[in-house]
Design brief:
The chain is of the alpha+beta class. Helix content is about 40%, strand content about 15%. It has a three-stranded antiparallel sheet with strand order 2-1-3. A hairpin with a 5-residue loop joins strand 1 and strand 2. The longest helix has 17 residues. The N and C termini lie far apart (about 35 Å).
Length: about 90
């Protein structure tokens, strides 16, 4: 079932980096190894749930704030480019 979320298949980089704002923990995974482990159709939000072991992850009132910093950087760069073009 397609949800519109980015998947391991469509993740644009070979290295998947994860950072957590709350605790400062970071990690990185080879995309190829994640593909072997979980398959190509796992959504990137679900990947976070599979590879992070944060006690706050399940607490909706105090989330761990895990994110993909490379995607945030790419998104901000794209936003800046489009605002300059417009």
């Amino acid at each position: 079932m397609t949800t519109g979320a980015l998947t391991l298949r469509t993740y644009p980089l070979d290295l998947v980096r994860i950072a957590r704002d709350r605790c400062g923990r970071q990690g990185q995974y080879q995309r190829a190894r994640l593909l072997d482990r979980f398959g190509p159709d796992l959504s990137m939000p679900d990947v976070l749930g599979c590879v992070t072991e944060c006690l706050r992850r399940g607490n909706a009132s105090d989330p761990c704030h895990a994110l993909y910093p490379d995607l945030v950087d790419r998104s901000m760069t794209a936003s800046l480019s489009s605002s300059k073009d417009g």
